[in-house]
Amino acid sequence: MPGKRMARRRSSLARQRIPIITGLAAFLIAMSSGGAFAFWSAQATGEGEISTEVVTIEEEGFSDMSAVYTTGKNAATASFLVKNTGSIKGDAEIHITAAGPLAEGLKLVVWEIGPQDPCDAETHAPGTAARGTWAAPPSLTRQLEADEEASYCLHSYVMNWADVATPDGTQSFTAEMMVSLDAKGWHAETTPSTNTQETQGAFPPAPDFFDPKVSRWFQVKTPQNQYVCLAAYVNYTSLYGSSIHTYNCTRNATRRWEFIPVYGTDQSLVTIRPRHALLARLSENPGGRLTLIDSRFGLSLFQQWIVREDSSTVPSTFQFENAGSGACLNVQAVQGPTPLTTLPCDNASTRLYLERDQLELLFNPWTERYSIDFAGVAFYFNARLQVWDSGSWTDVSLAGQNDTTMSLPLSNIPMGENTYRVTDWAANLVLYDNIIINREGNTLTAVGGFG
């Protein structure tokens, strides 16, 4: 029977048939002060046979515990059973062995349950539960009477995805369980049973996935179709409450997105804003629908996105997991009017790649004038180009709605190397910064922020 093995004697004698020697029997009786006994709890029979008491142990359920962990399913819970199938009580010990980085990062909680106790995803482990990892499992021992069984609930989970992440998002290990029983000097073991624990889509956080010193506006695309993009529906009544769709990629500000770190320069947790509405943030509604909300009314978890990178692809692909729901941003392979919702992170549509808009310094030899081109993407509002000069920001030129470039009149360009930025009309919201231009005579040279 799988998971069952008969006992073995620690001594060299386990079970044998011997002739009854009258003299030896009489000697043993005499030495026992008149009381007969048998060695190793053996039973003497009239047929001249000494037989040991049966010591056996069984386990079932562990081999059914194979599990796959994704960012949408970070835990697995199941039960296994240990039974003393022998004729005497003994001390059972559960041995779990596993090795490797995933076994070290995957947490383990085990506790005994009664016949009617639940053991599922909704079950909470008691404070007395044994805890550890698959690589360093807790000690589990239990005295079992003859024919007694004990059931255990095993909860395995990812506490921190960074602990189990790999560049391609996948790793696994095989776990083994053996149960032993010791009784009156006898030792029994189950045949080892195994299961497999695996991660899929467990990509590492991406703390520096874009260069902050150049343009930070991106098209968000799916590898399934490079011609469609994440896009905001234009609500002409209000910028907020707009739905999000998969539309054809065009040179439209509603298809451009900026990632803003929530904490300092760490890009692994960001908010996402559209280029056409700088005070808006991409958010997830309670029903899972993606929408734009006004950023001036607080920052909830549903407006924050955990960024993970699959660097095994060329170019790298990313997942943006909503910090409030654990579901992921997605772009469908075909454009359509259906508003987007977040999806489980193991869905192929949640694997995204980013295409950055590039700034270009232009020179027209016919007019001998310079300008900055914003990848052909028009402004949705009036904007200002400013230079940091003499301790303050000074206007260089202005752009109107639907303009795709901003002029660089030499009369407003100071000599030497200077820093420029592009803002909204009120100069409160910055679209582009870290633009560095050097002027020598009437010649301008791009130094930083371009390309």
Question: What distinguishing features does this structure have?
Answer:
mainly beta; 4 domains; 45% strand; Ricin_B-like_lectins; 3% helix; 451 residues; Immunoglobulin-like; seven-stranded mixed beta sheet; disordered N terminus; Trefoil (Acidic Fibroblast Growth Factor, subunit A); eight-stranded antiparallel beta sheet
Give a verbal description of the structure.
The protein has 451 residues and is mainly β. The protein folds into four domains: 4-51, no CATH class; 56-199, Immunoglobulins (Immunoglobulin-like, Sandwich), CATH 2.60.40; 217-356, Trefoil (Acidic Fibroblast Growth Factor, subunit A); 360-448, Immunoglobulin-like. It is built from two helices and 34 strands. It has helices at 22-31, 101-105, and strands at residues 4-6, 8-9, 16-17, 43-44, 49-51, 56-60, 67-69, 75-84, 90-97, 106-113, 130-133, 140-144, 149-158, 171-183, 186-189, 193-199, 217-222, 225-232, 244-248, 257-263, 266-274, 280-284, 290-294, 305-310, 317-322, 353-356, 360-364, 369-373, 383-389, 392-399, 405-408, 416-424, 430-440, 443-448. The strands form seven sheets. Strands 17, 18, 19, 20, 21, 24, 25 and 26 form an eight-stranded antiparallel beta sheet that branches. Strands 2, 7, 9, 12, 14, 15 and 16 form a seven-stranded mixed beta sheet that branches. The longest helix is centred in the N-terminal third of the chain and has 10 residues, at 22-31. It is elongated and about 105 Å long. Residues 1-51 have low confidence and may be disordered.
